[in-house]
Amino acid sequence: MTSVDADVSAAFREEWGHVVATLIRVTGDWDLAEECAQEAFAAAVRQWPVEGVPRKPGAWLTTIARHRATDRIRREAVGAAKLREVAVTMHEPSEPLVNDAGIEDDRLRLIFTCCHPALAFEAQVALALRTLAGLGMAEIARAFLVPETTMARRVGRAKAKIRNAGIPYRVPPAHLLPERTTAVLGVLYLMFNEGYSTPVRRALCDEAIRLARLLVQLMPDEPEAGGLLALMLLHDSRRDTRLDADGDVVLLADQDRSRWDATQIAEGRAVLARVMRLARLGPYQLQAAIADSHAAGSDWPLIARLYAQLAVAVPSPVIRLNHAAAVAMAEGPAAGLALLDGLDIPGYHLLPATRADFLRRLGRHAEAAVAYERALGLATAQADRRFLTRRLTETRGRAMEPSVIERAAQPYVGIRRTVTMQTIPEIADRMPAVFAWLTERGIEPAGAPFFRYLVIDMAGELVMEAGFPVSAPISVEDDGEVFADVLPAGRYVSVTHLGHPGELLGVTKRLNEWTDAQGLRWDAEQTPAGDKFACRLEIYKTDPRVQSDMSQWETELAFKLAD
Amino acid sequence: MQYALLIAGDHEPTPDELALGCGGWSEEMAGRGVVRGGAGLRPPTEATTVRVRDGEVLLTDGPFADTKEQIGGLVLIECADLDEAVEIASRHPAAGYGMIEIRPLFAP
Questions:
Q1: Domain A3-91 belongs to what architecture?
Q2: A3-91 with A404-560: one CATH topology?
Q3: Is some CB atom of chain A closer than 8 A to the CB atom of B1?
Q4: Do residues A498 and A554 touch, judged by C-beta distance below 8 A?
């Protein structure tokens, strides 16, 4: 890119909204304003390389755009248009007017109009992104996950309504200001988030911050305007460290704090401190206070309390998720995991990813791997997918390493059969009968079903049981095939297999080798009928109704060790 | 800007609501000089809907829209912009129990 190209790009970022906003004020025509702004930038691309970059690019662009508007209106030269010509000429070459509050900015006027409550919320944001930030229709459509033609229609309808329904182009009068402000803050926050997500669009972040500053000056007693400005500044201060060279997200704890923007942090803190003294807390101030604590080294108990307050102010499952994450940092992953119970955010990969992280930190690697896999199924951003894939591989590996665990005594009900390697299905097929037996008696299984191998003679017969754990011992009075018993407590070697159960023979072989190498011995004895095991379990943790693909199944082998 | 205020509700006004009438609204707005016309409508049960198809005049007993909300009156106003129209409409007593649709008129 040549330096002039860079100047034009910079001018586009800096001045687009200003040129459009001024043109709307002087022509009253939103489409004409955008077209003339576009022509002005096209002129800059042609003329600046030849004539040099003007000293005040914004003023140059506005003047060109204004001349184009005058030309076009003159050409129309009919009744109403004549009046507009007068209006345009009358204002020229006026600079933005200063209102009673001492501050006026065409962009502020523009954003209040874009955010007029007579427009639907999505139309408000789309209009603001188009006219203020200069986003293309394709980008806006992508941000809303709708086809471009749908978005173009929506924006077109909104402009028509502004024109035909007489939505005024102004900063609202004082008595309307507070209610209109909430809408404007929402738009600015979305605009900032759009810029802050990957790929990063700095201009959007800068524009949102710039407009928030103006709002704060205009409404110094509106604490949420200051809260939002502080929130955006504190987030933006970490812009250089939150992604690594590959564009992957760097966790807060791993960021280089020395590279955070100290000026922005100081400004954000000062703004937040001032508005918090107004003692009217709101969601933006709470979020800013959270970001502020992060900037100061993350006081997790404080952050957890702030999230708890925020969850009351804004009942959103995403905030409950963040609350759980903060509690996990303050009190440990078990406390966080408990808060995730009953939380459902369809299609949101951060929910299973957070659950996976808690499980991983609790050493429950197999469950973590299942949750990472679910998160991977929902994540779309490449950076997120790389992170989740890395964690999935890691936890899978950890899950599939054998470990020695303590198991408590476990009551169960089951059916026993003597089979051969070829007739194992005879016992496998009885599993539903055990389940049906429980269902008939209104008893919930207390965990995943299992096979228990009592006697194994690979060449001859095996004595096997199919069972379901239950929460308390049951006495079975009838003399049917179902019996009740208790799996013995003690030390077990446990290993999880993630894959097709047909691969369990190989897993068992490796488990035997590992146990030998550790100098451990199974609680087993050799008998003429075969090897007799005190407790040898194959636990089927995947519900086949949920996952029919057996290559995705999770199976745990748990063999009791000799005392 | 000129607007029609279409005053609608999901029930016939109750005696209390009827007693409110326009609650001084008409007088106030006339005083401000924003009212250009309007009328209260008798109930939709007394409406007749007319269509002409293939030269034939077809009549239906009742209003054209078979919805819960029915228009009970309309006022034509002239004011600066939509914000002022919203302010005018929101002060009409019927906004408190029914609803008011603001429709811009085609420019004359």
A1: Orthogonal Bundle (1.10)
A2: no
A3: yes
A4: yes
* Residue B1 counted as domain residue: no
Residues paired with B7 in a beta bridge? B73, B100
Q: Does residue B22 contact residue B106 with C-beta atoms inside 8 Å?
A: no
CA gap A497, A476 in Å, rounded: 33
Tokens of A355: 């659950």
- Stretch among A212-216, A241-245, B9-13, B49-53 having the lowest mean pLDDT: B9-13
The answer to whether the CB of A229 falls within 8 A of the CB of A217 is no
Structure tokens at A267: 């400004």
On whether residue B9 sits in a domain, the answer given is no
| Interfacial B residues in 44-103 facing A (CB < 8 Å) | 80-83, 85-86, 102
Q: Backbone phi, then psi, for A21, in 5-degree steps? A: -60, -40
Tell which of B6, B82, B105 to mutate to test the A interface (max A CBs under 10 Å). Answer: B82
Rounded-to-integer distance, Cα A488 and Cα B91, Å:
77
Q: Quick one: which of B28, B10, B4 has its CA closest to B68?
A: B10
Task: Give the span between the Cα atoms of A283 and A184, in whole angstroms.
Answer: 15
pLDDT grade for A143, boundaries at 50, 70 and 90 = low
CB contact under 8 A, B85 and A166: yes
Task: Please answer yes or no on whether B81 and A116 come within 8 Å at the CB atom.
Answer: no
Alpha carbon of residue A385 to chain centroid: 12
B8 in contact with chain A, both atoms CB, cutoff 8 A: no
CA-to-CA distance for A324 and A458, rounded, in angstroms? 49
Of the candidates A407, A466, A453, A9, which has an alpha carbon nearest to the alpha carbon of residue A203?
A: A9
Task: Specify the CATH superfamily of domain A404-560.
Answer: Regulatory factor, effector binding domain (3.20.80.10)
CB contact under 8 A, B104 and A172: no
Q: What is the pLDDT of residues A535-561, one digit of tens each?
A: 999 999 988 888 888 888 889 999 999
Nearest to A168 among B3, B81, B102 (CB): B81
The reported pLDDT for the residue numbered A494 is: 92
Cα(A463)–Cα(A452) distance, integer angstroms: 9
Q: What is the pLDDT of residue A73?
A: 84
Q: Is A447 on the interface with B (CB under 8 A)?
A: no
**Minimal C-alpha gap between A185 and chain B (Å):** 20
Given this model, what pLDDT does residue A383 score?
81
Report whether B92 contacts B5 (CB < 8 A). Answer: yes
Residue A476 confidence class, pLDDT cut points 50, 70, 90: confident
Per-domain residue ranges of chain A: 3-91, 346-399, 404-560
Round to whole Å and give the CA distance between B55 and A169. 48
Q: What angle do CA A174, A178, A184 make, to 5 degrees?
A: 110
Q: Which of A227-231, A303-307, A380-384 shows the lowest per-residue confidence on average (mean pLDDT)?
A: A380-384
Distance, C-alpha A563 to centroid of its chain: 48
Q: Looking at residue B58, what DSSP letter applies?
A: E
| Other CB atoms within 10 Å distance of the CB of residue A304 | 23
Q: Which residues contact A550 (CB under 8 A, 6 or more apart)?
A: A500, A501, A502, A544
- Enter the DSSP assignment of A282: -
A433 token code pair: 């009968």
Give the model confidence (pLDDT) of A385-408 as tens digits: 998 999 999 998 888 889 888 899
Reading the block at residue B11, the tokens are 């029930």
Top residue of B83, B88, B101 to mutate, by most chain A CBs within 10 Å, is: B83
d(CA A249, CA A238): 12
ipTM attached to this prediction: 0.88
Closest residue in chain A to residue B78, using alpha carbons only: A166
